[in-house]
Write a structure and sequence with these properties.
By secondary structure, the chain is α/β, with parallel strands linked by helices. Among the domains are: 62-196, Rossmann fold; 460-599, GMP Synthetase, Chain A, domain 3 (2-Layer Sandwich). It contains 22 helices and 28 strands. Strand 12 (244-247), helix 11 and strand 13 (270-273) form a beta-alpha-beta unit. Helix 2 (65-81) crosses helix 3 (98-109). The radius of gyration is 24 Å and the shape is globular.
Length: 601
């Protein structure tokens, strides 16, 4: 079984330094809509489970492809009858569930696209400010929440603004989801389904970007289908074996929604919803689920791989099930540390006799999500590969780097109701300006793939005029400080040297300073000594001022979702964090050394 398909780069270099890269192999014809794929599998494999989730007895509740198609059209009929449309979409507040999946498919089937919202906007946010921003942007017709009690604050906000409520349980103020399922399929729904085209909006996905203000990315049916036809050609084993996923990645984000959920739908597989999380408290649930169900490919963000690894090493039953049919590891969303990468290679070699291949991809919510993928298998964690079939990559010189821009059928037509953003998001040739920089993994070798070279907007100059490349520096830091540091923000613009605001891994620090609170840990001499030793050895390997971090501030307070500093996946917003914590940065560069700071002598 071939795991990787051919992607042969064709390169065109212009005299002005701009380079275009595309793949020689064409993108095959593909269906017009995801609903075509649902109908295909409902006819071919009607009884195959499509989505499975835990029931209240600890077993698995499933819905088949035939049941999904029937429910999709019933729910779509209800949505149309009650005024849902692209202008007044349904907002899905709660996390991954069978009901969430059905609502999403129903909306796209009848031209009334839904918009999933990060659960953190309702459950973590203290002031609901981002949810209020989403309401203003999207003008929703309905909110859906699986659990009315858990989402009571958000539902009260909706009620105060005359937004309809749908809940998965019984609530006096809401329409029960069961009513939607009981709706007969209407002629209007059938007509709306028949009227779908590749340009029909399939869904909206929210992204904050550098401002922290939610933006709604239009996801057309063309984007959704082209993305998965590209993925099938890059990883052709999906054509031969229906994929099985056991996964927690939220469907409010493109990785979990478009990539993972779409992979299962497009290829007729089964999605087991993992109700765990890659946290010290949530990983036990993931371990339980993976001990019962083995995936055929394992997608995760780097933190998810990191949290699971010690359990795989220690738990024989987990290890046996996990490795029983998995073919490949796939990470995205952030940089994976080399120690974690090597840990999985060593463990899979021990269990299977040879290390399992890794791959990764580069993309964004605006690119469907994948635009570039590694089809050689990773030797170094940051090689994101070459363009997918049908994708054109444009490399534009920018401040000593190559800024990546992308064009293809997987690219969004723009942001909903934001012509101001659309005017700057695309260049004069229609390429989407993703904001990432790339460089060749092997100088002069266009077939060897590209390395991620940071975010163009995050890079800055020191007072000496020396450029600091934030992305690679962050990855080097996290590799070196494993497992002491969870994440960091690089500081030092217009200053003499580089500093960092560090979010420690308090679970790891508990072994150094047990029994202390986070606020006490960041001031503990033992913790500071551990960071000082790593900082000294990292500086010794630096090649100059652009890679030499001189000072650290250890932060006890986590990044704020309300302030736009982080998403519920854990991705940090560098610029907002620096702006919001300007006093901490000023203190870090002041003459006095605070008791939560570490500096090179």
């Amino acid at each position: 079984m071939a795991l990787f398909g051919p992607l042969t780069p064709l390169v065109e270099a212009r005299a002005d330094g701009v380079t275009y890269v595309r793949t020689a192999e064409p993108l095959p014809a593909h269906p017009d809509t995801w609903i075509d794929r649902l109908e295909h599998w409902a006819a071919l494999t009607p009884d195959r489970p499509f989505i499975a989730e835990r029931d209240d007895k600890g077993g698995w509740r499933t819905i088949s492809y035939a049941q999904t198609l029937d429910a999709t059209m019933r729910i779509g009929s209800w949505l149309l009858a009650h005024g849902a449309s692209a202008e007044r979409p349904l907002l899905i507040l709660s996390g991954n569930s069978i009901e969430h999946g059905l609502l999403s498919l129903a909306g796209m089937a009848v031209g009334a696209p839904t918009c999933p919202v990060s659960t953190a906007y309702s459950l973590v946010s203290q002031d609901l400010s981002k949810l209020k921003g989403v309401i203003e942007l999207m003008t929703p017709s309905f909110f859906f929440a699986q659990d009315a009690n858990a989402y009571a604050r958000a539902l009260a906000l909706a009620k105060s603004r005359d937004i309809g409520l749908i809940t998965g349980d019984i609530s006096a103020d809401a329409t029960p989801f069961s009513e939607l399922l009981a709706t007969p399929v209407s002629a209007a729904a059938r007509a709306a389904r028949a009227a779908l085209t590749p340009d029909s909006i399939g869904k909206f996905l929210l992204t904050s970007g550098s401002t922290g203000t939610p933006k709604a990315v239009v996801n057309t049916q063309r984007m959704l289908c082209a993305s998965h036809e590209m993925l099938r050609e890059a990883l052709p084993f999906f054509k031969e074996e229906p994929p099985i996923l056991v996964e927690w990645l939220p469907w409010a984000h493109t990785f979990g929604s478009n990539s993972s959920f779409g992979l299962i739908l497009y290829n007729g597989g089964t999605f087991y919803i993992d109700d765990g999380r890659p946290t010290p408290s949530g990983i036990a649930t993931t371990v339980k689920n993976l001990t019962e169900i083995g995936p055929t490919i394992f997608f995760n963000v780097p933190k998810g791989f990191e949290e699971l690894l010690p359990h795989l090493k220690a738990n024989t039953a987990l290890r046996e099930t996990f490795f029983s049919r998995v073919k490949m590891f796939f990470y995205a969303g952030a940089g994976l540390s080399q120690p974690v990468f090597e840990g999985y290679r060593a463990l899979s070699a021990e269990v299977l006799g040879a290390p399992l291949p890794w791959t990764t991809s580069l993309g964004s919510t605006e690119t469907g999500p994948g635009a570039i993928i590694n089809v050689r298998g990773l030797e170094r964690t940051q090689n994101v590969g070459v363009p997918h079939r049908g994708v054109e990559l444009k490399l534009v010189p920018n401040a000593g780097k190559l800024e990546a821009r992308l064009r293809g059928p997987n690219i969004t037509p723009g942001y909903w109701r934001r012509p101001d953003l659309n005017a700057t998001a695309f260049d004069e040739e229609g390429f989407y300006k993703i904001g990432d920089a790339l460089k060749l993994a092997e100088p002069g070798d266009w077939t060897g793939g590209f390395m991620f070279d940071g975010r163009v907007s995050e890079d800055f100059k020191l007072a000496t005029g020396t450029w600091v490349s934030v992305g690679p520096l962050r990855i080097a830091f996290l590799n070196h400080f494993q497992p002491l540091a969870q994440d960091l923000v690089v500081a030092g613009e217009n200053r003499d040297d580089i500093g960092a605001l560090v979010f420690p891994n308090f679970a790891a620090l508990a072994a150094i300073a047990p029994g202390l609170s986070p606020d006490e840990m960041v001031r503990d001499p033992r913790v500071k000594a551990a960071f000082a030793g790593r900082l000294k050895s990292l500086a010794a390997a630096a090649t100059g001022s652009s890679t030499r971090i001189v000072r650290l501030a250890l932060l006890s307070a986590p990044p704020s979702i309300d302030l736009g500093e982080a998403t519920d996946k854990g991705s940090l917003n560098q610029r907002l964090l620096l702006a919001n914590r300007a006093e901490t940065v000023e203190a870090l560069y002041g003459p006095a050394i605070a008791d939560n700071e570490v500096r090179l002598s």
